[in-house]
Design goal:
Chain lengths: 177, 71
């Protein structure tokens, strides 16, 4: 009964994850098309930065590239989650491969947290690079999002380790009659 | 030392088929076949007890310790 429930729920969550994998890049493209990455929009979107001189095209391009990098890490996490749901939907629940996929998803979330922290700092520098000397800003901070990514990523890694052990024991049990 | 499963001998002596015994003790015929051929990592006490009950024998009749063969 529990296995059936895991398989059914995973099938639906796998579909949702597939939609999200498509939606994330579409959102970035939508942002590009609707002017979310114009100089004015970037200045308005970063009220804590003291942007005296509007950033140049290079800085804006760098900003967008960093967003794309974050998106790539996010898609990697979603890809691993999708693979995990796919394996669960197929009934491969207590297997070493599923446990390792969960660990990769957790590692990806930890990387996403780290990348977010670094990206925010670098983006701040890029947006204030055109400021006169002495007024450029480097701000490093951790928001709730990064803390949740760290906690969730860490949790997934630990659960992944536990599942590796569970998969090993399940494999051994299968050899007993 | 290695453990040799003598289930096939006991089944023959009792004139029982693997299918009947498997159904009686509640395991699959495939698992009983694996057990007969010794291709399992182990046998649960529960399964061993049921086999002994159904075949009216002792664990020692089903299992035998033998010096490991060299290849």
């Amino acid at each position: 009964m529990t296995v059936k429930r895991v398989m059914q729920t995973s099938r639906w969550l796998g579909l949702l994850t597939t939609v999200l994998i498509g939606a994330v890049p579409a959102l970035i493209l939508f942002g590009l098309a609707t002017g979310a990455f114009t100089v004015d929009a970037l200045i308005a979107g970063n009220p804590t930065l003291n942007i005296v001189t509007p950033p140049g095209a290079g800085a804006v391009t760098g900003y967008v590239l960093i967003e794309a990098l974050l998106m790539a890490v996010g898609i990697y996490v979603l890809w691993q989650v999708r693979a995990l749901f796919g394996a669960y939907a197929a009934g491969d629940i207590l297997t070493l491969e599923s446990a390792q996929t969960l660990q990769r998803a957790g590692g990806g979330l930890l990387a996403l947290a780290g990348c977010n922290i670094v990206a925010t700092a670098v983006q701040g520098v890029l947006l204030t690079w055109a400021n006169p000397p002495g007024q450029r800003q480097l701000a490093v901070g951790i928001s709730n999002t990064e803390i949740w990514f760290l906690l969730t990523g860490g949790l997934l890694m630990v659960v992944g380790w536990a599942l590796v052990e569970a998969a090993r024991q399940a494999d051994e049990n299968r050899g007993f009659v | 030392m290695e453990i040799i499963v003598r289930l096939d001998v006991v089944l023959a002596l009792r004139k029982r088929t693997g299918r009947d015994v498997a159904a009686e003790i509640g395991i699959s015929e495939q698992n009983l076949s694996l057990l007969k051929s010794g291709k399992v990592k182990g046998i649960r006490f529960e399964t061993l007890a049921k086999l002994c009950e159904v075949l009216d024998c002792q664990p020692g009749d089903l299992l035998e310790a033998s010096p490991a063969s060299s290849g």
